[in-house]
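Hypothesis: this fold can be encoded by more than one sequence.
Test: take the structure tokens below, design a sequence, compare later.
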């Protein structure tokens, strides 16, 4: 007679639950703003919407935390990557192809018009709004050896403080660059920057990705 092992929820499970709830909340709030009653309360709704914009880093860090907990003994990389390819890579590939071929109108930013742009849309997660989460998860999967290495290294309080302090500095510099790029550059400087960048629209999700990677290091340290 087999006895099922009791699974205990960890911080990662709670983070994923909160993130999924917040994603649904954003959809409800966005729909609410299209109604007359919602437009009359646009300020509080907008504030609530902004307050729950933590979904991307929370979801990714939740996955990382759970993965770190369940891989106390680092698995062989070939086995791990092969498993993640079947679990995450193949579904992402098929869903991306489905969106690009069947629903190309839902592409984010500039739609693909060439083969190169088509391939790039498959890589960067812009084939559909929510596919970017898959892209971030794939990034975390590829970076898992780094997180495992950090866990092995950050075994003392001194090293953990150095790691967290360095992460905080890098995060602050990244946020400063993001803020400067979006709010400080104006007038002729903005036009010059747009011309040099080829009139590329800055993607706000870069900030979310930066936050996810920075907080992932903190998550790794807390799990060490």
């Amino acid at each position: 007679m087999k006895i099922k092992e009791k699974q205990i929820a960890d911080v990662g499970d709670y983070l994923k639950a909160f993130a999924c709830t917040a994603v649904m909340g954003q959809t409800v709030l966005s729909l609410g703003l299209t109604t007359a009653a919602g437009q009359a309360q646009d300020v509080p709704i907008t504030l609530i919407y902004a307050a729950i914009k933590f979904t991307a880093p929370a979801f990714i860090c939740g996955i990382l935390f759970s993965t770190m907990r369940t891989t106390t003994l680092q698995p062989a990389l070939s086995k791990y990557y092969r498993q993640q390819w079947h679990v995450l890579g193949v579904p992402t590939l098929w869903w991306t192809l489905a969106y690009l071929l069947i629903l190309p109108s839902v592409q984010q930013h500039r739609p693909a018009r060439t083969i190169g742009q088509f391939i790039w849309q498959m890589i960067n997660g812009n084939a559909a709004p929510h596919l970017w989460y898959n892209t971030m998860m794939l990034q975390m999967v590829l970076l898992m050896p780094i997180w495992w290495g950090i866990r092995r290294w950050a075994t003392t309080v001194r090293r953990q403080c150095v790691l967290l302090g360095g992460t905080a500095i890098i995060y602050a510099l990244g946020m400063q660059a993001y803020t400067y790029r979006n709010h400080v550059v104006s007038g002729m400087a903005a036009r010059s920057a747009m011309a040099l960048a080829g009139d590329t629209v800055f993607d706000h999700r870069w900030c979310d990705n930066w936050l996810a990677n920075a907080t992932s290091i903190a998550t790794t340290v807390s799990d060490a």
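Residues 41 and 89 are 42 Å apart (CA to CA). The chain has eleven helices and no strands.
Hypothesis status: open.
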